[in-house]
Amino acid sequence: MTMSVPERKSGSEGKEEESEDESEILEESPCGRWQKRKEQVSQGNVPGVESASLAMDTEEGVEVVWNEVLFSDKKVFKAQEEKIKEMFENLMQVEHPNIVKFHKYWLDMKESQARVIFITEYMSSGSLKQFLKKTKKNHKTMNVKAWKRWCTQILSALSYLHSCDPPIIHGNLTCDTIFIQHNGLIKIGSVWHRLFVNVFPDASVHSKARQHRDEQRNLHFFAPEYGAGEDDYAIDIFSFGICALEMAVLEIQANGDTAVSKEAIVNAGQSLEDPLMREFTQSCLRHEAKLRPTAHDLLFHRVLFEVHSLKLLAAHCLINNQYLLPENCVEEKTKSFDPSAVMAEIKHEDRQGVQLKYSHVSPLELDKFLEDVKNGIYPLMNFASSRPHPVPRALSLSQEQVETVKTPTPEPQETETRKVIQMHCNLESNEEGTKTHLSLFLKMDDKLHRQLSCDILPTDTSKDLASELVHYAFITEEDSEKVAGFLEDAICRHRVRALASGSTQ
Fold it and tell me: Which InterPro entries does UniProt cross-reference here (predicted)?
């Protein structure tokens, strides 16, 4: 999906106009969380999307994109409704740090027309194409380390999509649909392109579907076999190869033509000084689709593959288990260490050893590195299994009140299917013994865990407390009984111990 930052007027006049006009709220979602604004964003490459506007996520306080697909024929819409819902439910389950987030969707039926509204993440920093143009304009060359890091992030996302069950083919990967954040994080958008093409026939959409493939300037991103038969991962690999080549040379010259020629692509590839980079891009651009490598294989190519440092492995381990650690644990730990103390030493028989002290590590740099790892800038894909895996669930529904409906059709509700595989409960009484704080941690089978907490008064019954906590946990009925029994047991045991020690609680 192409999303560009709209031009804004300079000076106080521009600011006033933006605050009065562009920030005007035109519509709200049924739950009241998403507020559509007047300001438009470019959305020309997704078939069927009639309009895309900036919107505000009032819960998170960030800007998002409000997309609309219009149907003038309600009968056609009704015939496609189940297929549309299934497609959007699949999109809700796509969760990867290098893929533009799909937040929510709902259907809106009116007398004259029907529409599908869906909310996506807003990439305010612009597309990779815009970044490459700016870099070339400033007479700079592409840093090889940055090129490798970007390729790894894009391949990480493609490997995830292709290894889903069933596989998700992007089908619209260009430098316009890849976005770069200020911190170097790469995200690919328009993941729903192929799904839209398959689900929305031209006759069903209010305006004719405008397919990105028809734009001459991006024709060279599409594989020779594109649209000729059933698409597979090879069309994405070809598109990635063109993206990787453009990232390396900053721009593939069209020599005055509207479309980039095959000769221009060959010349750009030959201009690469690094033979490994040449081999890497050429393997993606092979004419025969079956000869192209997979995204997973490319992550092991010599130009990208490296043995991950212990620092990176430890950071991933820390991030993956952060729910077990207290907040600001890194900061607190570094404060308690003696800067002159030796944390590791490398000994050599024939020469003096090397000592690594705590003073050699900057806590600020460590915090930034952990944040980058958490955001997906340094994925651990080199050790990932190529075995297909089911599409993971999206995060559970937030506790939004449907009573604040502003448009006719309510948003669809999700059914919880995940299983609780482990439970932890912690109860701590205050010094006066007037109340107890309860923390419940539920470890789920998809690793998207849940933590709940509340204060308990002496008058609260263990059964009511357990029932209330389970109500907010969003778990299956089968797990509800199990968790409720576990909580009742824990609360009763705690109260027995408190009575035995002479506490009122």
Answer: Kinase-like_dom_sf, Prot_kinase_dom, Ser-Thr/Tyr_kinase_cat_dom, WNK_Ser-Thr_kinase
